[in-house]
């Protein structure tokens, strides 16, 4: 009976998916044009901020990206904001479509594994019910759906902190080039060409793409700051846009912002060092307590045995 029910459920799911694929939903022309404008704006933004995602590098097939694109459209159609996830993925050089598709497939695999195992065990009269396997499958699906996003956010936070450090160095280099008499665009390009780190390469590619598209470099840097979620880069672009014609004020502003960014990084490092010192203190106290218990235990047991 269990196999018959499972087979019927699989057949019904297949027929439902077939109907969804073969059906031709009505398209609203206004909604289609709005969607086209959104896609064009997103493509321009990705080109301008030098987001180049190679499916061969991130191991994303075309079908996986198409599936993720449908999931993205469905989620955005529900009114959910994916901006924070998109910014983290941009730092990791990964696509939102691939991440969504991977998350759904992992959740589906986590759900099906105990269900299939429970079905096989039930078929051989093993003491493992379908209900328990379904509950375990739901729990595993939730865990497998959350783990990719949590891991990605943790890695993106580390890369964002590294990128802020690169931005601070970039500000100092731009200020030095301005002191040498270069203009703002030339100073930005020269400063970005002094390093081959991933953060500086991202800035350099953004400036190059902006020049090819006829966009001012500070506007491109502002969009890059929005894309990766680095406020310092966006503030720098705003300052350059306001005082681009006055090199002295730009130089002073950039130097002040670089100094402020370094003080912030130093404060964060000192805070983390303090937290680690507290953790080491707690570990040492636990070791001392354990050692005292080790010394007192024989005498205490001797007194209790005599009593």
Automatic annotation (TrEMBL):
It comes from the Bacteria. The keyword Zinc-finger does not apply. The chain crosses the membrane at residues 6-25, 100-124, 130-151, 281-300. One of its GO terms (cellular component) is plasma membrane. This is Type II secretion system (T2SS) protein F. Residues 170-297 form the Type II secretion system protein GspF domain. Keywords: Cell membrane, Membrane, Transmembrane, Transmembrane helix. InterPro entries: T2SS_GspF_dom. It is a multi-pass membrane protein. It is found in: Cell membrane.
């Amino acid at each position: 009976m269990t196999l018959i029910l499972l087979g019927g459920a699989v057949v019904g799911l297949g027929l439902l998916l077939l109907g969804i694929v073969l059906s031709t939903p009505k398209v609203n022309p206004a909604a289609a044009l709005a969607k086209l404008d959104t896609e064009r704006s997103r493509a321009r933004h990705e080109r301008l901020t030098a987001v180049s995602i190679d499916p061969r590098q991130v191991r994303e097939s075309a079908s996986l990206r198409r599936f993720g694109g449908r999931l993205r459209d469905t989620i955005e159609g529900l009114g959910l904001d994916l901006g924070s996830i998109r910014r983290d993925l941009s730092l990791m050089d990964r696509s939102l479509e691939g991440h969504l598709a991977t998350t759904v497939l992992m959740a589906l695999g986590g759900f099906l594994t105990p269900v299939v195992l429970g079905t096989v065990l039930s078929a051989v009269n093993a003491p493992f019910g379908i209900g328990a396997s379904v509950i375990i499958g739901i729990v595993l699906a939730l865990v497998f759906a959350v783990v990719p996003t949590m891991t990605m956010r943790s890695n993106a936070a580390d890369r964002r902190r590294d990128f802020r450090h690169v931005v601070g160095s970039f500000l100092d280099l731009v200020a030095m080039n301005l002191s040498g008499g270069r203009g703002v665009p030339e100073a930005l390009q020269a400063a970005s060409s002094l390093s081959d780190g991933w953060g500086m390469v991202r800035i350099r590619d953004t400036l190059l793409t902006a020049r090819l598209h006829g966009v001012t470099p500070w506007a491109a840097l502002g969009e890059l700051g929005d894309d990766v979620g680095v406020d310092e880069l966006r503030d720098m672009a705003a300052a350059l846009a306001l005082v681009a014609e006055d090199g002295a004020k730009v130089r002073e502003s950039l130097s002040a912002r670089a100094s402020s960014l370094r003080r912030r990084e130093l404060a964060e490092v000192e805070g983390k060092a303090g937290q680690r010192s507290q953790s080491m203190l707690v570990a040492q106290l636990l070791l001392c307590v354990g050692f005292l218990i080790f010394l007192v235990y024989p005498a205490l047991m001797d007194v209790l045995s005599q009593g």
